[in-house]
Amino acid sequence: MAASVLSSPADRAGAVLTVDLAALAENWRLLKRRAGAACDVGAVVKADAYGLGLEPVARTLKAAGCATFYVAHLDEGLALRPILGAGPRIVVMHGPNPGTERDFAAHGLIPVLSTVGQVRSWRSFAMANDVLMDSLVQIDTGMNRLGLTPAEFTALMNDPDGFVGLTPLALMSHLACAEIPAHPLNKQQYERFTSALSAFRLKFADVKGSLANSSGLFLDKALHYDLARPGAALYGVNPTPSSPNPMIPVVRLSAKILQVRRVDAASPVGYGATFQALDGAKLATVSMGYADGLLRSWGVSGHAYIDDLRVRVAGRVSMDLTTFDVSDAPDSALGPSAMVDILGTRQTVDDLAKASGTIGYEILTALGRRYHRRYLPAPGSSAAQK
Questions:
Q1: Residue 128 domain flag
Q2: Is residue 261 part of a domain?
């Protein structure tokens, strides 16, 4: 008989990730207020809700009023359906792989059709099985990523059977430079999308348009159309990088101090001896590293906080450990329960990303699974604190 575990997950973990679900819900409401009156503001919850936990995030957003959710893969949609129940829309942005169409239909998942092959396969499936359900058709308007090319879209439009059997909910495209309001590609994509949508509505009069991502909601309302797809902004990432962040911080990440030591003589710290500690320096090592989502590049110039004191990373981030120079911290702040704040109000996701040479999206989606995750519930949310 196996012995029971007597300690709590919070006690066993090396770091604590706190997710403020009330802030998440308020961020969705803020984006909803930004949108045009007729625009359905959904939520992108792919990649485990950007690393914050699909179930508590989705339940919170549903309780706040969100009715359309976007994921990348079919398996994400399959996991999300029992969480949300039958009502909300779930859009799978990568569409159906060959042979998966029945799973979309069985679980009420809406595919995004981005290639001629996907359009034909979904058309054949729908007609052969008498399936009448929504889909989205995606076109490329200048990003050269997913979507029908202009030539492919025109050919399908000119083919009497090109879209036969489909029930398009919306025509969709994706802005490449929405976070840079003055970028000329925004205007070009808007014009190309408007032209394509006008043509598509000659076949499907009631079809909606979907173009705006998080940053797109901070552009002219003409770009909002009918379905908006905010993602990172929900989780506190700044959708307007050249201006103050309008979003509320959602995450806090605090690491436990494993050891504090005083350096007796000037000597190097960590792998590669890239940092030189001064004689008498105090060093604190915490129980997290790049296996937990801290990027190694952060170690070059990174910092964190003990209370209001800024402490710099000392040496390289290693797999499970990171060391800080805490020479200026009083011993009273370095006791057995002391923690170092990696993310919070003093250092946001965007701040950490900048110091790591990346973007907030990568910081969030890299968050490790070894943290103890603590959820602060939103009023009226069924997402429980853990």
A1: yes
A2: yes
% pLDDT > 90, the chain: 89
Residue 15, domain member (yes or no): no
Q: What is the pTM of this model?
A: 0.94
Cα 304 from Cα 47, distance rounded (Å)? 26
Q: Are the C-beta atoms of residues 374 and 17 closer than 8 Å to each other?
A: yes
Question: For residue 178, what are the domain limits?
Answer: 21-235
**Amino acid (one-letter) located at 280:** G
Q: Which of 32, 46, 225, 371 is catalytic?
A: 46
Evaluate if residue 5 carries a pLDDT over 90.
Answer: no
Q: Is 46 one of the annotated active-site residues of the chain?
A: yes
Residue 243 lies in a domain: no
Distance separating alpha carbons of residues 80 and 89, to the nearest angstrom: 10
116: buried, middle or exposed (CB in 10 Å: 19+, 13-18, 0-12)? middle
CATH of the domain at 163: 3.20.20.10
In the set 187, 221, 271, 386, the catalytic residue is 271
Residues 87 and 203 in one domain: yes
Residues 204 and 163 in one domain: yes
pLDDT beyond 70 at 119: yes
pLDDT above 50 for 385: no
Average pLDDT, the chain: 94
Q: How many domains does the chain have?
A: 2
Answer yes or no: is pLDDT of 386 > 50. Answer: no
Domain boundary among 347, 362, 379: 347
Tell me which amino acid residue 130 is. D
DSSP state of 148: B
Calpha distance 104→213 (Å, rounded): 24
If pLDDT is split at 50, 70 and 90, which confidence band does 381 have? Answer: low
Return the structure tokens found at 303.
Answer: 């910092």
* Residue 203 designated active-site: no
